[in-house]
Design brief:
The complex is a heterodimer of chains A (382) and B (54).
Chain A lengths: L2 H4 L12 H20 L3 H20 L3 H11 L3 H23 L12 H17 L3 H9 L3 H25 L9 H32 L7 H21 L6 H14 L13 H8 L6 H18 L12 H20 L4 H10 L3 H20 L9
Helix pairs in contact in A: 2-3, 2-13, 3-7, 3-10, 3-13, 4-5, 5-9, 5-10, 5-15, 6-14, 6-16, 7-8, 7-13, 8-11, 8-14, 11-13, 15-16
Chain B lengths: L2 H22 L24 H5 L1
Classes of the chains: A mainly alpha (382), B mainly alpha (54).
Chain lengths: 382, 54
């Protein structure tokens, strides 16, 4: 009996709406926007809505750093990687000059040292085990993957643990951020950043051609990169700093831990002015939390608008274990490495900060280890 | 447990938690990130190595 014969003879149906989850996502986003508008915060409302758009675009474009980096490593395929570089080039066009010239704006910068290297490397291992990075975890969890809900919970836990370790690892040493615009001015910094992106693209394309792999991104990836790049600029324009994801997770986890009696008053990280304020204030006062909430709900709305939501069955336990371990490693690594693919790599390089490229190199090394570990959890290396 | 049911619970509990936190915590006006504060040298608000040595 063929597979076709085993299927019931029903006419092909158009994708249908999943009304309960679509309504839940739209209602939740409307309530969040209303809450912050009642507080007189149109900026917060804008961040939630830009996050919503990012979630929808990521999901519909299937924009993935994790899978594209894996394809780059295993087969030399550069399509998704080039999409990421295009996204950064677009964001840099606004972030570098505005951060250097406009008061109140700033780029994503970070010190260079062991903390950055260790954190990014561990993050790279985690992203291949979890099968998603910071943004990937948000949009796939929002899009109906129960496996990535597990990753999200463990990402949050790992980032709180990382926040407790970061000061000790920072004490190992390091140097202050190196920012291109500080040496070359805003336009020189932008030119050098674009040149570095071009060089990375040339090297990747040369490797792909030598290995006979796919080089150029599909239209879906190009459109996704352009839209995500423009939305990154929009987040920067209203938030005054490049888009980031993982600090929000750390705040969520710390607030939950506090609820269960954990005391962070002796933790050095939580005595630094920014984290201390974030822990005390409303979660809707934190820029990364606002875009994160929007992104989860945007992905949920986009997923529920085209197909039944979360109808798949749970994956095998080994796969769930990889999701959990990957989430923990990413959370811990993101705190030590000053962010994820978005906050450290996209935000860092688009700000002309050297730490963005160092993060990329260390995370790519971690990905190579993570890819080797995937078969232990029943996951493909491809 | 069915994945849809888990999602329904996560949405309801998550939204209730956001609402409870928002209503019981001060709002600082304009949303902020740790980089907005003096001495921040990273997106999480970590200080610069040069200031840590002092």
């Amino acid at each position: 009996m063929t597979v076709a014969a085993a299927q019931p003879a029903v006419p092909a149906r158009l994708p249908r709406l999943d009304w309960p989850f679509l309504l839940a996502a739209v209602l939740a986003i409307a309530l969040l926007v209303t809450l912050v508008l009642i507080d007189g915060q149109p900026v917060s409302a804008a961040l939630v809505l830009f996050g919503f758009a990012l979630g929808a675009v990521f999901l519909k474009a299937e924009f993935s750093f994790t899978a594209s980096w894996r394809r780059l490593i295993t087969s030399g395929q550069t399509d998704g990687f080039l999409g990421g570089l295009l996204l950064i080039a677009i964001a840099a066009a606004a972030i570098i000059p505005v951060a250097a010239l406009a008061p109140g704006f700033g780029g994503a910068i970070a010190p260079l040292g062991p903390s950055l290297l260790i954190g990014a490397f561990v993050f790279g291992i985690g992203m291949q085990l979890a099968n998603g990075c910071g943004s990937g975890t948000l949009y796939t969890a929002g899009g109906g993957s129960g496996r990535m809900l597990v990753t999200l919970v463990c990402f949050i836990a790992g980032s709180v643990i990382g926040s407790l370790h970061l000061p000790a690892v920072l004490a190992l040493g390091g140097i202050d951020p190196v920012i291109a615009s500080a040496y070359l001015g805003p336009w020189g910094g932008l030119a050098v950043t674009w040149a570095s992106l071009g060089l990375a693209a040339i090297v990747a394309i040369a490797i792909a051609r030598r290995r006979g792999a796919i080089v150029w991104p599909a239209r879906r990836i190009v459109i996704g990169a352009v839209l995500i790049g423009l939305l990154s600029i929009a987040v920067f324009a209203v938030g005054h700093h490049p888009w980031s994801v993982t600090f929000g997770f750390t705040v969520w986890g710390a607030k939950l831990a506090t609820l269960f009696g954990m005391d962070f008053s002796a933790a050095q990280f939580w005595q630094w002015p920014g984290p201390k304020r974030a822990l005390a204030d409303s979660i809707l006062s934190d820029t990364s939390s606002l875009t994160n909430f929007g992104m989860i709900l945007g992905a949920m709305a986009a997923a529920a608008a085209t197909a039944p939501f979360a109808r798949t069955s749970w994956p095998p336990l080994k796969s769930l274990a990889a999701a959990a371990i990957g989430g923990l490693l990413m959370g811990w690594g993101a705190r030590l490495g000053f962010g994820c693919n978005i906050g450290a790599f996209v935000g860092g390089v688009a700000s002309g900060s050297l730490h963005g490229w160092i993060w990329f190199a260390a995370a790519l090394g971690g990905c190579m280890i993570g890819i080797r570990l995937r078969p232990l959890f029943g996951l493909s290396r491809e | 447990m069915a994945m849809r049911l888990i999602y329904a619970i996560v949405i309801i509990v998550g939204f209730a938690a956001i609402l409870a936190d928002h209503l019981s915590s001060p709002s600082s006006g304009r949303p902020v990130s740790p980089e907005d504060f003096a001495g921040a040298c990273a997106p999480c608000g970590a200080p610069c190595p040069s200031t840590q040595k002092k």
